[in-house]
Amino acid sequence: MPEDTEAIAALLDAAYDPELVGPTAVSDALQRLGATDDAATALAERVGRAQRELSRLRRREHELTALFSSARELAELRDSDAVLARLVQRAREMMGVDLAYLSEFDTDSRELRVRETSGSVSASFQTLRVPPGRGLASVVVESRTAHWVADYTAYAADRHDAGIDDAVSAEGLVSLLGVPMLTSDDVLGVLFVANREKKSFSPDEVALLSAVADHASVILQTTQTLRDLQLSEDASRRTLESLTAHLVERDRANTVHQELVQAVLAGGGFGPVAETLASALGRAVAIIDAQENVIAAAGLPLSPGMLSLDEPVRDALAESRRHGHCVPVAGSGVRAVSALTAGSRHFGALLLGDGDFELGAVDLRTIERAAQVGALLELQQEAASGADHRVRSELIADILDDVPERRADVERRARRLGVDLAALDSLLVLAVAGDQQTPAARAVMRQLDDRVLVGEYRGFVVAAYSGGRGEVQPDRLRTQVASAIQGSVAVVVPPPAKGPLPAAFLAARRTARLLAALELIDLTAHVEDFLPYSAVLDTDAHGLSSFLRDTIGAVRQYDAERNADLIGTLRAFVRNNASPTRTARALNFHTNTILQRLDRLDHVLGADWRDDERMFRLGIAVRLDELRERLQGGKG
């Protein structure tokens, strides 16, 4: 009997492992030990139930262990993609299936996108997108409950999609189980397991996969929360950086404004404005006038683009002039331009070069304020210059009017201006358009010594100077003044030291009026060259034009209509003392040819044109006409 007892104990120990001893083996063993058939069968069934429960508990232990591991990884979440991949792998292992995958739901497109797979062999399946309303996945999303099919090919036809069917076929999948990943409000995705053979999924398997799906939901939610927190942090950081930069710009602007005010009050001109901006903004600054000449600079060296403006900079300057704002520029070594304007008047511009930081909105407004300060300085200087110009013009008028009763007062005012009246022995008279006389006078002042007396008098700009102080170059002065006022300038030079200044001015004025009558508006003329004509013809443009028309107008008309040159013959005839022979010799023609042309002149001018009085008038007319033609041709 002891042997029987040991055998029964061994049998019962083995019965705990269903792979070693089944219920039938237990029943047979008990019958051999003398147990009745009914008792053996009943005991065998109890052993079978115990074996099944033990197997279930072992499987449950394995599943719980896997879920605990997943929960621990979830608690230590660092890389959400890695945790999701591990979770999908565990789902496949726990469920004992061929494939497991997780599809994430896109709330905007309503699509499901495969994000993680385990056991997949098809590249197309790993990037599968499930359209709305298609496949088993859409049923899970719509119902928010688990669904499974033992044979996907027999699934509802209206749910099939060619792309999904191709991916499922490429993997060889037959049965699928999908459970939703849920939050209180939304569907985050679907967790799937699949077999390549037919399989029916039990409620325990559905519950197990649902538990895993809950973990996946937490991971996705946590990932989204972390992403939102990161975006919020990035937005907060950008806001803080923007606020900090704005405060730095504002402080910089306040400093610049204070220094600009001090610069204006100190009367330092444009230099302090450029230095203040260059120091505050850390870049080169140039201030140019209306002719694009640099009048102040700081933060040297200046880039070549600031010394010679290219087309983009000029376009930006034109835009700034239109609306008064600072305009950013790309390239050319110039980064910003702000025009110096006051109403419709333009005085120049501020040019800003490269720096270590980009100019912000507050910086651009600061540059605009500096440009406004520059315009105010220009107006201030213009007002002071205007007052000085009026004083000098009044002094010029008193000198050239030569009123003895005011002589003492004239000398006192000249001394106040630092001008020695006794040394003034030379004049320059400039004829310019009426609205350009004041700018022209200022341009002359900039080019000549400040002890030269320059002012406006009787419609002209007059410069009185000492001939012994150094040679004045009239042609160069005319070019410089014409460039400054962007207009035509005629300079008349009377002979120096040959009489009082009032007489020199009268001679120059007669010459200037003669030039205007001849429509010569851009040249340098010496009074001696025009003296024979200006002394006789002190007239206006209308009178001189009438004189020329009445004397030689018919000859000019004859030449224009017949493409002839009777005017050339008339000029040579006058210059050669009305001698046909000398005229023929001068023109290299036969005398008979000249006589024929003189006959034509008889028909054009009348038979009495060679009389003394008419010949005198014709002589003056042809010489003036020839002089005008020569000067207009640039030979004067």
What characteristics describe this protein?
636 residues, Beta-Lactamase, 5 domains, six-stranded antiparallel sheet, five-stranded antiparallel sheet, 16 strands
Share of residues in strands: 5-15%
What form results from the Cα inertia axes? elongated
N-to-C CA distance:
155 Å
By secondary-structure content and strand pairing, the structural class works out as alpha+beta
Could you walk me through the main structural features you see in this protein, from its secondary elements to its overall organization?
The chain has 636 residues and is an alpha+beta fold. The protein has 22 helices and 16 strands. It starts with a helix and ends with a helix. Keywords: Coiled coil. InterPro entries: CdaR-like_regulators (IPR051448), GAF (IPR003018), GAF-like_dom_sf (IPR029016), PucR_C-HTH_dom (IPR025736), PucR_C-HTH_sf (IPR042070). This is GAF domain-containing protein.
What does the secondary structure layout of this molecule look like, with pairings?
Elements: H1 2-15, H2 23-32, H3 37-75, H4 80-95, E1 99-105, E2 112-118, H5 123-126, E3 129-130, H6 135-143, E4 147-149, H7 162-171, E5 175-182, E6 187-195, H8 203-266, H9 270-281, E7 285-289, E8 294-298, H10 304-307, H11 311-323, E9 327-328, E10 336-342, E11 345-352, H12 361-401, H13 407-416, E12 426-431, H14 437-447, E13 453-457, E14 460-465, H15 474-485, E15 490-493, H16 501-517, E16 524-526, H17 527-534, H18 541-562, H19 566-575, H20 580-587, H21 591-605, H22 612-632
Parallel strand pairs: 15-16
Antiparallel strand pairs: 1-2, 1-6, 2-3, 4-5, 5-6, 7-8, 7-11, 9-10, 10-11, 12-14, 12-15, 13-14
Helix pairs in contact: 1-2, 2-3, 3-4, 3-8, 4-8, 8-9, 8-12, 9-12, 14-15, 16-17, 16-18, 18-22, 19-20, 19-22, 20-21
